[in-house]
Amino acid sequence: MIEVVNISKTFNGKKVLESVNARFEDSNTSLIIGQSGHGKSVLLKCIVGLIQPDTGQVLYDGRDFVSGDTDTKRAIRREIGMLFQGNALFDSKNVEENVMFPLDMLTDMPHNEKLDRVNFCLQRVGLENASKRMPSEISGGMQKRVGIARAIVLNPRYLFCDEPNSGLDPLTAIKIDELIAEITDEYKITTIVVTHDMNSVMTIGEYIMYIHLGRKLWQGNSHGIADTDVPELQEFLFANRLLRDMKMRNG
Fold first, then answer.
1. Distance between CA 29 and CA 36 in Å, rounded?
2. Structural domain containing residue 207
3. What confidence tens digit (pLDDT) does each residue in 215-230 have?
4. Residue 75, class by beta-carbon neighbours within 10 Å (0-12 exposed, 13-18 middle, 19+ buried)?
5. Which of 79, 84, 162, 226 would bridge with 88, disulfide CB 3.0–4.6 Å?
6. Helix, strand, coil distribution of the chain in percent, nearest 5
7. 102 and 167 in a common domain
8. Burial of 141 from C-beta contacts in 10 A (0-12 / 13-18 / 19+)
9. Do 75 and 176 sit in the same domain of this protein?
């Protein structure tokens, strides 16, 4: 479980996050949603340690990632898997080498054990026959699967996904959502997804947090979000429906 306690962050005098609290449970796919520029990505970066919040705590199963000592932070980082928005694959490395990279950097495993682990992860995401292909030789959806395989290769306890459906067609996006949800449940991972994709919200949103102007205005699940009485969230949902309908009409 990850707990966010009174997290605040200011940049150049502008309050980007203000006293945000949340609890992300094990084996759940939790979503952070909201308009661009309202603090979603900053919150995610505070949670994973890429940005130091001004105040507050980020607790990984009771361990404070903000004020913890070096050993505590190193141990937590070792338990984190990250799927980046742009996949962040190395163009000069093939699929197998990309997935193996965290093992090379953070473990002393023998090469044959690394290879076994990489092959297992590629098989889990349906890419067992793509290990020797270069990123430029595979589709965007396949690249996203490579990113997921790399994110889970260290057998993480916590998985973070930043806009995992960005740039994907609707069918591929659904498959990526299903894969993230399956892995979360199968390995009992605490998963947090930052997304604009309303299909993700309605299908895998076991816990959903809506951020507006740096504050948490609503929390709940996919069953309750349609009945929200929060005006800002209603407007956000309406705008996303319009955008989705326009994309469908334009093919």
1. 21
2. 2-79+159-249
3. 999 999 888 888 888 9
4. middle
5. 84
6. 40, 25, 35
7. no
8. middle
9. yes
- Please count the structural domains in the chain: 2
Instruction: List, as one string, the DSSP characters of 101-135.
Output: HHHHHH----HHHHHHHHHHHHHHTT-TT-TTS-G
- E strands in 25-92: 29-33, 55-60, 63-64, 80-83
pLDDT digits (tens, 9 = 90+) for 108-125: 999 999 999 999 999 999
* Identity of residue 89: L
* Strand duo 207-212 + 29-33: pairing: parallel
Distance CA 59, CA 67 (A): 10
Whether 51 and 9 share a structural domain: yes
Pick the last residue of a domain from 107, 123, 155. 155
What's the pTM? 0.89
Residue 85 lies in a domain: no
172 and 237 part of one domain: yes
By three-state DSSP, how is residue 209 classified? strand
**Separation of alpha carbons 153 and 192, rounded Å:** 17
222 and 127 share one domain: no
Amino acid (1-letter code) at residue 82: M
Residue 211 near residue 38 (C-beta atoms within 8 A): yes
Tokens for 250, please give them.
């334009």
